[in-house]
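Data card: per-record layout.
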Amino acid sequence: MTALLAVLLAARVLELGPTRAQRESAATGLEFPFAARADQELTSATVRLAADGMEKLEVVVNDEPVAVLSGVDGTREVPVPKELLAERNSLGLRLKGADGSCAARPGAWRALKSVAVAVEADPTPLPDDLALLPLPFFDRGYDTDATVPIAFAATDEAPLAALAASWFAVDAPIPLTFEAHVGSLPDSRALVLVAGALEAARFGLPPPSGPSVRMIDHPLHPGSNVKLVVVAGRNRTELSTALQALATRTRRLAGPEVKLDAPAARTQPVPGEAPRWVGTAAEVPFSAYPGEHELSHEGSAPATLSLRFRVAPDVWLWPADFVALDLGWLARGSPRPRLDVEMNGDFVATLPDRDHGRARLRIPRDHLRGFNELLVHVHYPDPDPCAVAPAQGDPPHVEIAPDSVLHLEGARHFSMLPDLSLFAFDGWPFTRVADLSETAIVLPDRPAAAELGTALSIVARMAQVTGSVGTGVALLPASAASDEDLANRDVLVVGTPGDNAVVARWADRLPLRFENGAARVQGPPISLDLLGGLGPLLDQRRANELLSRSANVAAIAAIESPVTKGRSVVAVTAADPSRIPPFSAFLGYARARTRAGDLLLLAGDERAMFRVGGWFGLGQLDSWTEARWFLASHFLLLLPVAFVGAFAFAGDARRFFALKRKRRLAEGEQ
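The structure for this 670-residue chain is written out next.
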């Protein structure tokens, strides 16, 4: 199926809700916005409702009644007339009584399980204008994830492709998966790298006249929304210049083509700091947090205020400690709402019932992540929804004070590695240096498309985490990756034992080993880490049980670098290159005994994480804290200490009681 036909048949189910606040609402109606992609026109829509016993419900689209449903129990579908659809749409649900009047039933929306709209759309042609980016690849207000094909002439241009993927992804608010196309142009929208007239001719494109970026029609789909974004130069040096200029993100992109000049020298990043991370050197108010946030709400409908932010993944506190949150708020108007505070899905507190004030809340260390979401749920008292609304002045207004502070200042930085949960979601420890200048990526000499795509997707993911383009990352073929080349770097290895010499070289050190196409878990030699308990041995057994149930296995495995102490090696591997899945397949819930692991398995439909190897520390702790942490993580050491202490106490007690008995006997003889 061609790309154009696939777009013509574009169909999608949009999950709209309801939210928890909407389920608890006493309102007689709920509103759900939906839209088409900016480069498509809606041709049909079908509302899908799932409920558990709702008596009578009216469906309204763009203020026009569409249907009245009675006895909604299970799933119901309601087609929407095409003439009612627009670019931006509103789906309304209204509670109705038997006679069609307003029906006020507190808690009625709890029976509403899901609301979705299945839409179909036709493409609309797009102009050649770079200002449209990230269209046509994704629409920020519509898509929840996207796949971006990237085409380049030869595998030795993979470092340039990594830089292009990092540039394109750095401001993307959704997960991106990159597909590598070497030597050919995909039949779809794509990001294309061109170095010289010969490469341009291979892709059927006009020759470049210098370092530039331009948007053009796909040669097979003129006058459509299937576009190519071409980064080009007359040679590889000029192509590199164009990509380095794009990486600075200082040039506004607009029009069909932009000529690019060599960028000025950039300052070196500070380890442990990144543009997208909240700093720990001093107090940082909410108003200075990177990104856009929803810190105010008007109206008496239930709402949720949100603050999404990142901190350095290695911010360290003793697990039993707390982070202080100095939270200010304002609630103006009547009625006064109830404000519930939540951090990363865990309830924190209900704010005092006052119009304004400040509260000092304690956030447990376990509730803090690399990526965090602070939510304030706004609940208003249940009114009489069918009463005539009185004349009102200004609507109720709620806001979180912009000078509120989460007190991370002075926090120490330390992490126990390997930790694949930190790698998967925060890119740690590779993102410790935001431009990835202390990162090496080792690929097979002749990487498969899946291996290239995985490497590009991981680099792009790291750019999203830090907010910085990975201009310093080194991509090396396995045959050229000597120990000297990998020294003093964190190393990402993508490939299999058969096609990547580095995977084969370190096979006896990795927690997962492939032999004759089969995978088995291997633990490290006996070490002090076993003094932390038998968990690694149990995890090794569980992992092998999982492997025995599936022949289709891919994995991410992590160890301390065999080349440089204190550095990490992370290997994305499988028995066969074709079995390496997109990096996104490793993300999401993984069954695990602990929150940190050194082996992440994707076996059939199962995802699980295990801790089978040892630990090492990255960062600095004071001597007393480091000693306490060592004993806490090697608690079996305390058993002989406790035994010696008990034996010494028993000896002292024996001598004490013997002396006391002797004195009593002497007193009895007198």
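Known properties of this structure: The radius of gyration is 30 Å. The chain has five domains: 3-123, 130-259, 281-381+396-410, 413-619, 636-670.

See the next section for split statistics.
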